[in-house]
Write a structure and sequence with these properties.
Jelly Rolls, 13 strands, 6 helices, four-stranded antiparallel sheet, seven-stranded antiparallel sheet
């Protein structure tokens, strides 16, 4: 069974030693460099006002073609001051890293990625989103069971994610969990923009997503995990003393319809594929 057949059968691929340690280290260093230049004063998470929800929504909704910074849920104290240093207060950086930063662009469009894209028959796919997930030691929180297509909906469904372990991912520091073959199901929900501002989760299928049969995908640094957009997956909190940094990119078929209701909006004429840059 080749990689494409295995991916089609189980809904994910685990590709060990996909990236070198040096390539992983380059992204982790770049994340620190970027965050060191970020002035968070005035960030929507700081203000405790009646407009906080709307401001936070706007910051999030406008991040598709930017390098934006998102804090951990409990990063601030009651006086809106960071409990720790900036870098260790961040949950992730996104969502246009792959197009706006040379280091992330080189990683996202590496020769091994281009070869994998060809092998999986995804030559017509576009890189629409990227994010550096920090999952700091003792701080990184839970990521609930979800399907990536919920957040990058297309007609027909086409979302495929690539998750890169920049550090070892274990059960104790919050590795991914997924069920082999779990993608052979329906899309449960669609995360959309509301017409009058903000976001909402539209329920498409009320069937619950069970974690029964899910297994931990414990992987070494440098591993790439490919995820079908319908595959339910999740990660638990990082309870260990070791961080679990990861980088993720999400792709869609350029021939599929990308609705204006999707939360992430970009000028689709400017969204590039793997061989365009």
């Amino acid at each position: 069974m080749n990689r494409k057949q295995l991916f089609d059968n189980q809904g994910y691929l685990v590709l060990e030693q996909f990236n070198t340690e040096e390539e992983c280290d380059s992204l982790m260093l770049r994340a620190q460099e970027l965050s060191s230049t970020y002035n968070f004063e005035g960030h929507p998470s700081v203000f405790q006002t009646s407009e906080q929800s709307k401001t936070t929504d706007d910051y999030f909704l406008n991040s598709g073609d930017k390098i934006a910074y998102f804090f951990e849920k409990d990063a601030f104290d009651e006086k809106s001051k960071l409990k720790t240093d900036l870098f260790h207060s961040l949950n992730k950086i996104g969502h246009g890293l792959h197009d706006l930063d040379e280091v992330y662009n080189a990683f996202s469009r590496s020769e091994q990625m281009k070869n994998l894209i060809k092998e999986l028959g995804l030559d017509d796919y576009l890189l629409i989103q990227s994010m550096h997930i920090l999952k700091h030691a003792k701080i990184g929180g839970v990521v609930d069971v979800h399907q990536d297509s919920t957040f990058l909906y297309t007609e027909p469904e086409s979302c495929i994610g690539f998750w890169f372990a920049l550090e070892d991912a274990t059960i104790s520091n919050g590795c991914l969990w997924a069920k082999p073959g779990g993608h052979k199901t329906t899309l449960r929900s669609w995360f959309t923009r509301k017409a009058n501002g903000g976001t909402e989760m539209k329920i498409l299928d009320e069937s619950p997503m069970s974690t029964e049969g899910m297994i931990p995908l414990e992987v070494k640094k440098g591993t790439c995990i490919v995820l079908n957009g319908l595959l339910p997956h999740y990660s638990l909190p990082n309870t260990s003393g070791k961080s679990r940094q990861a980088y993720a990119i999400h792709t869609i078929d350029k021939n599929a319809r990308y609705p204006k209701e999707n939360w992430l909006q970009r000028d689709m004429d400017k969204v590039k594929g793997f061989f365009d840059a």
